[in-house]
Design goal:
With 105 residues, the chain is mostly helical. The protein contains four helices and two strands; from the N terminus they run ββαααα. This is YiaAB two helix domain-containing protein.
């Protein structure tokens, strides 16, 4: 059990210590950085977005050579792009847009 430390002022009476926030407390508060998304997660999310876009564009360019194959590649690319976009915009972000704003035309 800790006892309160008291001091005598110039008049000789006992005074309580100042309980205001000290400099150390303020420094500790400033050091705490805002919670950020992990750098690797953001990097992989944006890399997946570009991979999906690359698959789609490659499938479009090469489609006349083998339509069945490159249609499948385009669909996979669209899926990767959609997954990465949802992950970047809704899962990894701090401030999510409101549903009305997302579905507004």
């Amino acid at each position: 059990m800790q006892q309160a430390v008291t001091a005598r002022d110039s008049g000789g009476s006992l005074t309580e210590p100042d309980r205001s926030t000290g400099r150390a407390e303020l420094r500790r508060g400033r050091r705490r950085a805002a919670k950020r998304t992990p750098l690797l997660g953001s990097y992989l999310g944006y890399a997946a977005t570009f991979v999906g876009a690359g698959l789609i564009s490659g499938a479009i360019v090469h489609h006349p050579l083998d339509p069945a194959r490159y249609t499948l590649i385009a669909v996979v690319g669209a899926g990767v792009f959609l997954f990465a976009t949802v992950r970047n915009e809704f899962v990894l972000t701090k401030r999510r847009p409101a549903a009305r704003r997302v579905w507004a035309a």
